[in-house]
User: What shape does this take?
Amino acid sequence: MPQFLDNILLHFVAWTPGVGKTTLGKELAQRTGLTYVNIGELAQEGDLYDGYDQEYQCPILDEDRVVDELDEKMTHGGVIVDYHGCDLFPERWFHIVFVLRTDNTQLYTRLESRGYTGKKLQDNVQCEIFQTIYEEAIEAYKEELVHQLPSNTPEDLESNLEQIVQWTKQWIKDHN
Assistant: This one.
């Protein structure tokens, strides 16, 4: 892993699972040597929760404990963070943020196949329709740090990987 590469926040999707962030993040880590951190897995392993949301049938993340858990790792750089929210992460942690976008019909099918129903399914699709995540990202970080990428097909995945790997190489070249 390049010691001098700063962190990448790979797609935070406040309520929009199913756009491909985990697949992209894991593959990107393999290709670049960066460290991949899935916030959902980190929270589960460390029991970093602050209750349970009955309406959405999911645990409520203890954001302060998550940030505390990650803080030291993030100061060393070279980390891909995969999560579906952004306002909890300090801007100082990242030099680039990627927001993946998926066609609503495909997203609906992906979420439905994961067992999402009712309000949870509808809210997630609406979040994508109204670009809620992108808007949240540009409010939380400098607009020039935030980049949208399409995530509909295997070709999109490969194109996104190539684009991010090229960006990573260029960043290293420019900062070494």
Remarks:
- The helical segments are 21-32, 39-46, 63-76, 104-113, 118-129, 132-140, 154-175.
- The CA atoms of residues 1 and 33 lie 5 Å apart.
- Confidence is low (pLDDT under 50) at residues 9-15.
- The radius of gyration is 16 Å.
